[in-house]
Design goal:
heterodimer, A: 114 residues, mainly beta, 4-stranded antiparallel beta sheet, 11 strands, globular, B: 110 residues, 6-stranded mixed beta sheet, 5-stranded antiparallel beta sheet
Chain lengths: 114, 110
């Protein structure tokens, strides 16, 4: 158990809909990262937050947004969903944001868009 | 740009050594990592190496880094069936983003 909690574990929805994925980092970790894992793209970095502020942005679509709340949990919002958004979405956390920080991953949310 | 590549699949027999290879393009990489993903689970950090090191050994795991060729490898000695998983290499460069390879599926045959 990594200490990172993601909910829900599975999510099935339809095209055009909007969903929210939730992540609770390990106790004491200030940094949260979101990744998307799909068969054709592999593991892609989406976005990072540190202590409530956006720190780095990767290949995140404009239809997607995220935030980190004062209690340090984070939410990833996916809107106008398309079939190609079906993927496993991982959240990871680390204590700081230094380059030598190890990331601890949650078990992921499997999103299926039908 | 940042790009990390791995071979997709490796099959070995139980008890043999496994070597998983990775190449990256970002010459400013500071740390390089190996993660393991078992079915239905998140990624678990196995080991990491600082870019000024050539080798790091941790029990059955040996990481070799050739910075000139931007080549990273993970050797698993005495591979067991429990080692069957997807292995991801990742590099963290000046942008602080952790960029992952596509993953190598390791299948260990009994």
């Amino acid at each position: 158990d990594s200490g990172v909690t993601q909910t829900p574990k599975h999510l099935i929805t339809a095209t055009g809909q909007r969903v929210t994925l939730r992540c609770s980092p390990r106790s004491g970790d200030l940094s949260v990262y979101w990744y998307q894992q799909s068969l054709d793209q592999g593991l892609q970095f989406l976005i990072q937050y540190y202590n409530g502020e956006e720190r780095a942005k990767g290949n995140i679509l404009e239809r997607f947004s995220a935030q980190q709340f004062p209690d340090l949990h984070s939410e990833l919002n996916l809107s106008s969903l398309e079939l190609g958004d079906s993927a496993l979405y991982f959240c990871a956390s680390s204590h700081r944001q230094d380059v030598n920080e190890k990331l601890f991953f949650g078990s992921g949310t499997q999103l299926s868009v039908l | 740009g940042e790009d990390v590549e791995q071979s997709l699949f490796l099959s070995v027999r139980e008890g043999d050594s496994s070597v998983i290879n990775c190449t990256y393009t970002d010459s400013s990489s500071t740390y390089l990592y190996w993660y393991k993903q078992e079915p239905g689970a998140g990624l678990q950090l196995l080991t990491y190496i600082f870019s000024n090191m050539d080798m790091k050994q941790d029990q059955r795991l040996t990481v070799l880094l050739n910075k000139k060729d931007k080549h990273l490898s993970l050797r698993i000695a005495d591979t067991q069936t429990g080692d069957s998983a997807i292995y991801f290499c990742a590099e963290r460069g000046a942008t602080n983003k952790l960029i992952f390879g596509t993953g190598t599926l390791l299948a260990v045959q009994p």
